[in-house]
Amino acid sequence: xxxxxxxxxxxxxxxxxxxxxxxxxxxxxxxxxxxxxxxxxxxxxxxxxxxxxxxxxxxxxxxxxxxxxxxxxxxxxxxxxxxxxxxxxxxxxxxxxxxxxxxxxxxxxxxxxxxxxxxxxxxxxxxxxxxxxxxxxxxxxxxxxxxxxxxxxxxxxxxxxxxxxxxxxxxxxxxxxxxxxxxxxxxxxxxxxxxxxxxxxxxxxxxxxxxxxxxxxxxxxxxxxxxxxxxxxxxxxxxxxxxxxxxxxxxxx
Length: 253
What we know:
Blueprint: E1 4-5, E2 15-18, H1 42-56, E3 61-63, E4 73-75, E5 90-93, E6 98-104, E7 108-114, E8 119-125, H2 127-132, H3 134-144, E9 153-156, E10 166-168, H4 169-178, E11 186-188, E12 193-196, H5 198-208, E13 213-216, H6 231-236, E14 245-250
Parallel strand pairs: 3-6, 4-5, 9-13
Antiparallel strand pairs: 1-2, 2-14, 5-8, 6-14, 7-8, 7-9, 10-12, 11-12
Helix pairs in contact: 3-5
């Protein structure tokens, strides 16, 4: 059965953060892998994409982008063909029947909605995108479609948690060079290392953009191997490939 995690902040709109359970892929990609960049069988990936869409908004057209760890946002009216997906890391729409999908494997998926205006957004927030302001850029793009940032609710889905996210001094100092206050998103680790709180950093970016309701699921993709794919875990295990889960939000017809 497909594992769908929902957020109270987004209860007014169809949405879900999906894990790795309930799909058709096998081996290291078992079982709900939707990553077209993986070495999984294309027919399995396509079947899994159909399963996830039907689990959240049956009959909707699934839209994804070619994610590049940027702060680029695109407006979606109708989904792009797979070969023509724009390079971006967030999408916004006001079109019913379109399901926005963000793929992750440790980065933070962010789903956003102004239910009153009928405008939604979805963002892929790795540390680079979050550092570059992907949250604020998504909010601004939603406003251009008629949303009010004061009404926008956001939820940050499963991602690598602070206890699992070790970074080195160079990473830490890059953040402090931008703003010494960013120290609050780090805890001391082993010598020369720190533990980074990605979800809290993304939440702060959204708050700075004027989003007053932000929910964090608090689920750790790295630590929960049975439920989630994890790039870092797969890399450390020398697996040579990794699956991706998807987070979805859409407007009903």
